[in-house]
Amino acid sequence: MSRPGLFITFEGIDGAGKSSHIEGLAEAFRAQGRTVTVTREPGGTPLAEKLRAMVLNDPMDALTESLLIFAARRDHLCQVIEPALARGDVVLCDRFTDATFAYQGAGRGFDLEVLSKLELMVQTGLAQEPGFMRNPDLTVWFDLAPEIAAQRLAGARVPDRFEAQPVEFFRRVAQGYADRAATAPQRFARLDAALDRHRVWQQLTSVFVRRGWLAIMVATQGGGQ
Ligand SMILES: Nc1ncnc2c1ncn2[C@@H]1O[C@H](COP(=O)(O)OP(=O)(O)O)[C@@H](O)[C@H]1O
Ligand SMILES: Cc1cn([C@H]2C[C@H](O)[C@@H](COP(=O)(O)OP(=O)(O)O)O2)c(=O)[nH]c1=O
């Protein structure tokens, strides 16, 4: 019996804890017989990974940055996301367009109307039905105060161009996510990412159980701090 694909994205400010849970969720889906594609943005294809390296390392103006991110997204949609969804995979994608609205839009102050136009252009013309716009079926939003995220990241890894931004930048990004969630409340599931890893995992799995996408509460993940 073939099942429809599921497109799930993970969002939040840097250090909110997304990466700590995506692979665990992939395992939970695999344990229930689903084929899972785990991917990320910017990136997910050889071309998009080259664009990612530029975006994360080279200073550039906000329009250039947005164009590169959306170019990477188009390649990723065409090469990876759409084929995986057509096969019936569960696609778990670490960040997608909400990040562009939060980082380039709210964080850098770039024009949201231009971003909306790029979003429409890049996310249509992919599937069979004319006018269909690809959007996530669900976006898990790891909501965390920027001060806590900064503490978690301090010393944890070498910061990229965004992670090196001051806490004030992340306050704007966090507000950008909140604004975006308010425009599509049925698509967003907000997690309280300030809780310990085990409780975040419990919140995460219960979102999927409630939707009938995972059959049972899956055993604990992560554990320590
Ligand atoms: N619930 C949590 N409580 C405390 N620390 C956490 C928690 N989740 C993740 N961390 C730690 O915080 C840092 C950032 O987590 P990570 O999953 O890489 O975040 P993101 O992918 O959202 O940037 C890592 O050092 C990780 O071990
Ligand atoms: C997808 C996307 C990411 N970004 C930024 C957010 C992150 O700082 C960075 C990379 O995201 P991420 O892969 O989450 O970084 P890491 O794995 O190191 O936590 O790119 C944007 O600015 N706009 C976007 O549209």
UniProtKB/TrEMBL annotation:
Matches recorded under Gene3D superfamilies: P-loop containing nucleotide triphosphate hydrolases
Molecular function as annotated in GO: ATP binding; dTMP kinase activity
Any GO CC annotation of this UniProt entry: cytosol
Any Gene Ontology biological process: dUDP biosynthetic process
E.C. designation(s): 2.7.4.9
Keywords assigned: ATP-binding, Kinase, Nucleotide biosynthesis, Nucleotide-binding, Transferase
Pfam families named among the record's database cross-references: Thymidylate_kin
Enzyme class: transferase
Annotated binding of ATP, by residue: 12-19
Catalytically driven reaction(s): dTMP + ATP = dTDP + ADP
Thymidylate kinase-like domain mapped to chain residues: 10-197
Matches recorded under InterPro entries: P-loop_NTPase (IPR027417), Thymidylate_kin-like_dom (IPR039430), Thymidylate_kinase (IPR018094)
NCBIfam families, alphabetized: DTMP_kinase
Record-stated family: Belongs to the thymidylate kinase family.
Its biological purpose: Phosphorylation of dTMP to form dTDP in both de novo and salvage pathways of dTTP synthesis.
Name this polypeptide is given: Thymidylate kinase
Organism: Acidovorax delafieldii 2AN
Species classification: Bacteria, Pseudomonadati, Pseudomonadota, Betaproteobacteria, Burkholderiales
